[in-house]
Amino acid sequence: MIVPRTLRLPAERSLFLFGPRQTGKSTLIAETYARPSCLFYDLLNSEDFRRLSARPETLRREILAAAELKEVKHVIVDCIASMKKEYKPNEEDTYHT
């Protein structure tokens, strides 16, 4: 049974969505943000998890590449808590303004 949500996620702002397991966070995200305009990483998907665990800097590079091309409006990382390995960026991964 799907419960109608009263929460409206912002279309033009960043956010973190936290909550207990199995409460519909992923469903809410999927219903709110269209996939073609999103970079979507599902860390429960073993392929995404292995790829980003092995080389965490990949996430940053993919986001910056998509932003340069203006292809995406949102970046969604689902189940980020599953990334328990501590990541320490090297000089190449550090953002400079």
Please write out the topology:
Layout: H1 25-32, E1 38-42, H2 46-54, H3 57-69, E2 74-78
Parallel strand pairs: 1-2
Strand order of the largest sheet: 1-2
Order of helices and strands: HEHHE
Shape: globular
Query: What proportion of the residues form beta strands (DSSP E)?
Result: 5-15%
Biggest β-sheet: count, sense, barrel?
2 strands, parallel
Mind explaining what this structure looks like?
The N and C termini lie far apart (47 Å). 31% of the residues lie in helices and 10% in strands. It has helices at 25-32, 46-54, 57-69; strands at residues 38-42, 74-78. The longest helix is centred in the middle third of the chain and has 13 residues, at 57-69. 1% of the residues are buried. It has a domain at 32-83. The chain has 97 residues and is an alpha+beta fold. The chain has a two-stranded parallel ribbon.
Short description:
By secondary structure, the chain is of the alpha+beta class. It has 3 helices and 2 strands; from the N terminus they run αβααβ. It is globular and about 45 Å long.
Q: What would the keywords be for this entry?
A:
two-stranded parallel ribbon; 3 helices; alpha+beta
